[in-house]
Design brief:
two-stranded antiparallel ribbon; 5 helices; three-stranded antiparallel beta sheet; Herpes Virus-1; elongated; 244 residues
C-alpha cells in the first residue's frame, strides 16, 4: 500500500499515484507500459493476474523496473505530514526523509522495554512510564544481589533465593566433578591401552633379539669348531712335513 494522499501538502501529480491503491507511490516499480505501482501492490496483483491493471498489457515480475529518475526525484521532493500528526506531531518534511523522522519521532507509539509489559507509549513519555512500570526491575535492597520485579517484592525471599542458587551451584559442581572424573578415567584407559600395546611391541622386539643372539651364538660355535678343525689339520700337516 502507498502513502495516504491526505497526508501530503499541496498538489500531487497523477503520475505519482499507484495505479492500484491510488495512494502516493511507496517503493515504486514501473511496467513497460510506464504505469507505476507500489511494490507490494503490483506483487499482490500479479499473484492472480498476468496483465497491467490499467491497460491490460501482459506483464510479469521480471519486466518491472525502478521508477524513472526524474519521477523518483519528484516523488522524493513531495512534502507530507508525520504519521503521528494525530498524536500532536506537527512536523512536515520531504518524502525522502519521512522514514528517518518517523523512526525518531517523539510522538511515535513504542512498546515498553520491560519484559512482560504490553503497554504502548509515546517515545517522549517512555522514561516517565519506566519509572512507574509495574514490570520494572531493580536490585534487591537487602543485598542478596538478585534483580527483582516490583510486582514480586512481596514474594521475594533472600534466604530462599540464595538457598536455591546454592543448590544449583552444588548440582553444577557435582556434574562438573563427574565429567572430570569420566574424562580422567577415559584418559587413563587410553594410556593403559597404549602402554599394553607398547609392552607387547617391546616383548616382540626382545624375543626377536633373543632369536638373533641365539643364531649368532650358533654361528660363533660353528666358527670355533671350524677353527679347531683347521688347527688340527695344520698340526697334522706339520707332522707329515717333519716325517718327510
Amino acid at each position: 500500500m502507498g502513502y495516504d494522499i491526505e497526508r501530503f501538502v499541496g498538489y500531487v501529480n497523477e503520475g505519482l499515484l499507484c495505479s492500484i491503491c491510488r495512494d502516493v507511490l511507496e517503493d515504486p516499480l514501473q511496467a513497460p507500459c510506464e504505469h507505476a505501482f507500489c511494490t507490494a501492490c503490483i506483487h499482490g496483483w500479479l499473484v492472480h493476474h498476468s496483465n497491467c491493471p490499467e491497460d491490460r498489457q501482459v506483464i510479469d515480475v521480471s519486466l518491472l523496473r525502478p521508477l524513472y529518475r526524474y519521477m523518483k526525484n519528484d516523488l522524493n521532493r513531495l512534502q507530507l505530514h508525520c504519521r503521528n500528526r494525530e498524536y500532536g506531531c506537527d512536523m512536515v518534511c520531504s518524502l525522502e526523509s519521512i522514514d528517518r523522522h518517523e523512526r525518531e519521532c517523539e510522538y511515535s507509539q513504542i512498546p515498553c522495554s520491560n519484559a512482560g509489559c504490553t503497554v504502548q507509549i509515546e517515545r517522549r513519555n517512555l522514561d516517565g512510564h519506566l519509572a512507574v512500570c509495574e514490570f520494572r526491575s531493580r536490585e534487591c535492597p537487602n543485598g542478596c544481589g538478585y534483580t527483582i520485579l516490583s510486582a514480586e517484592d512481596t514474594q521475594h525471599n533472600c534466604v530462599a533465593e540464595l538457598r536455591t542458587e546454592l543448590e544449583l551451584l552444588r548440582s553444577e559442581m557435582i556434574c562438573r566433578v563427574e565429567e572430570a572424573k569420566h574424562e580422567m578415567e577415559s584418559r587413563l584407559d587410553s594410556q593403559r591401552r597404549h602402554m599394553v600395546q607398547k609392552e607387547s611391541i617391546l616383548q616382540n622386539e626382545i624375543e626377536e633379539l633373543k632369536s638373533q643372539m641365539s643364531r649368532m651364538m650358533s654361528d660363533v660355535r660353528s666358527l670355533m669348531a671350524a677353527e679347531r678343525q683347521h688347527r688340527q689339520e695344520l698340526e697334522q700337516a706339520e707332522l707329515e712335513k717333519r716325517e718327510l
